[in-house]
Specification:
With 214 residues, the protein is of the alpha/beta class. The chain contains eight helices and five strands, in the order αααβββαβαααβα. One of its GO terms (cellular component) is heterotrimeric G-protein complex.
């Protein structure tokens, strides 16, 4: 959150300061290349099962290294920061961030290697989006096609969601592939835990279906 550490300057500058989980979540740590996380979940029916997550850097320079990881994945989790409608890419100041997310999403959806991989779409940072809208930042100023629609969280989020859904529909190599969209604020750990549990169930269900088809 902008200003997060500055608001907490006294706490984070004490000699005995030790970062809380929330501090770690709020840190801006750029992912460079691909980072692998291997873990087991403490709760749930499938105790002891290994989960592997590959976290890939979103910067344009880092995208060409993704392809080898697409070969054998159960699901793709695509995060698009929809609060960024009024921002441009750091690496190319002419490109609107949502426009870039949509283009990237199109290439992921159309990728043949991913034809059978279900896609989970997180339209993320809705807390920041809501704050921006409340502060009077107008979506239609940056996204002309938004037109006269109300400058409120629900219609704005639905509008962006419909854009992403349309891209998925147009560019899927496999008609059966499903898209699992969610509006998220990933820094809210409680809501995110429930969401991750849904995603986990979807992946397990899909794996079960695939293995019973074999
Ligand atoms: N308020 C808010 N902050 C978020 C949310 N999701 C991520 N952030 C913050 O946004 C910043 C960037 O998040 P990262 O996960 O590091 O970004 P990234 O998309 O992985 O970026 P790259 O690693 O460069 O690809 C961090 O400071 C996060 O705490 C959210 O839903 N709400
Ligand atoms: Mg990252």
């Amino acid at each position: 959150m902008p200003g997060f550490y500055l608001n907490d300057i006294h706490r984070v500058t004490t000699k005995t300061y030790s970062p809380s989980n929330q501090d770690v979540l709020n840190a801006r740590l750029k992912t460079v290349g691909v980072v692998e996380h291997l873990f087991q979940l403490e709760n749930g029916g499938e105790k002891g099962m290994d989960w592997r997550i590959f976290d890939v850097g979103g910067h344009r320079d880092h995208r060409q290294v993704w392809a080898p990881f697409f070969d054998d994945v159960n699901a793709i989790i695509f995060l698009a920061p929809i609060s960024a409608f009024d921002q441009v890419l750091m690496e190319d100041k002419k490109v609107n961030r949502i426009e870039d997310s949509l283009l990237l999403f199109r290439s992921i959806c159309a990728n043949k290697l991913l034809g059978k991989v279900n896609i989970v779409l997180f339209l993320n940072k809705i807390d920041i989006l809501e704050r921006k809208l409340k502060a009077g930042v107008k979506v239609s100023r940056y996204v002309c096609s938004y037109g006269e629609r109300p400058n409120k969280l629900q219609p704005v989020a639905s509008y962006f969601l419909s854009k992403f859904m349309a891209v998925h529909k147009e560019s899927k190599p496999n008609l059966l592939r499903e898209l699992y969209p969610h509006l998220t604020k990933m820094t809210d750990t409680e809501v995110t835990a429930a969401l991750i549990s849904d995603v986990r169930e979807m992946i397990l269900r899909k794996q079960f279906q695939d293995s019973s088809l074999m």
